[in-house]
Specification:
Blueprint lengths: L1 E4 L2 H12 L17 H13 L4 E6 L5 E3 L34 E8 L8 H14 L13 E6 L10 E6 L4 E8 L2 E12 L8 E9 L8
Parallel strand pairs: 4-5
Antiparallel strand pairs: 1-3, 2-3, 2-4, 5-6, 6-7, 7-8, 8-9
């Protein structure tokens, strides 16, 4: 368990740094299609043996943020081509009654720079139906979301960026780091085939500047 933290951003970046200390947490940057065959094969091998780790960021009755224990529990995939870490649906923090915890973000790493998936979208919507989409925190605009960190390095990975999806806004945002400066861009929007069904999200590429609400760290 990490924390407590006074701010959302402190908790977020602490979780990112912690995840990338774990073994095989990053396959590194995906080589371009024009790269040598050996480079392509090396990346595919790193990706196949890489691991996703995940946790919850939650909000406590003490008006602080905390990060649950990391897990690498995942859907089995013998081919190693897909990775999906599954956090437990509930956080156990013996300092507080279970009903007093506010669920803020499902945190996980993607093993390389790739956007939020339809499985990520469906999972966070399921969690919203369980815990609510509008947690009560000192930050009024904070909504339930899912975050996928990535690193461009595989030997000594660092937190180079992350994608975030907030069901409340329907937008997927990408944050990237250049030195100490972070910048944000909307990359996709999520649409649903029908209002009645939450089983078939469609992720459409749609770039735009980050909106004010949901785009702040």
């Amino acid at each position: 368990m990490l924390g407590p933290f006074d701010t959302y951003s402190q908790a977020l970046f602490s979780a990112c740094r912690k995840i990338f200390t774990k073994p095989r947490s990053s396959a590194g940057r995906k080589p371009p299609e024009t790269a040598l065959r050996e480079e392509q094969e090396a990346f595919r091998l790193r990706r196949r043996v890489a691991t996703e780790y995940c946790a919850w960021m939650y909000y406590t009755p003490d008006n602080q943020y905390a990060i649950s224990l990391l897990t690498d529990q995942a859907d089995p995939d013998p081919t190693g081509t897909t990775k999906r870490c599954i956090p437990p649906p509930f956080v156990e923090d013996r300092r507080y009654p279970s009903e007093s915890i506010q669920y803020i973000v499902v945190l996980h790493n993607h093993t390389f720079d790739t956007a939020i998936s339809t499985k990520d979208v469906r999972f966070i919507v399921d969690q919203g139906n369980l815990h609510g989409f509008e947690p009560k925190t000192k930050d009024r605009d904070r909504r339930l979301s899912v975050v996928a960190f990535f690193s461009n390095e595989h030997e000594n990975p660092t937190c180079d960026g992350f994608y975030t999806y907030t069901p409340y806004t329907g937008k997927i945002l990408k944050w990237t780091r250049d030195g100490r400066q972070w910048t944000c861009m909307q990359t996709h929007v999520v649409k649903w085939l029908t209002r009645e069904s939450l089983d078939a999200p469609t992720i459409k590429e749609e770039t735009a500047p980050c909106p004010t609400m949901g785009g702040a760290l």
